[in-house]
Amino acid sequence: MRGSTNELHPRVRRSLLDLLDQAEVTARLVARGKRDYDADEMLRLAAESLLTRMGECVDRIDKADPAFLAAHPSLELRQLKDTRNVLAHGYDIVDHALVWFIVSTNVPVVAGSIRQFLLTVGLSESKGEPQ
Fold it and tell me: Can you give the pTM of this predicted structure?
């Protein structure tokens, strides 16, 4: 892909920033701990909703720049989109332990990769202009 800020599609940029926002909310949910997650149906549903939103962000990226996901496999965005599809269409077979693993382990890694990517293309996490 493109290496400069000017070449990053605006919707891709916006969706990456939205994804980071959802990852921050996810981190707050995870901070409550697995015991609370296991005991609280609303926390489990919130985790599913957050993963669905992140998958939607990835879908928007894919639509805005179809080559982006393939050009940046290290961001692991495709997995978020796949997770969204499972949650949206297979809601009756959701494995809550797997959802916890994804929100507590995978999402922070993906968020870190996105932050690093944004820095390498000259963007910050802020919603403002390039650095």
Answer: 0.87
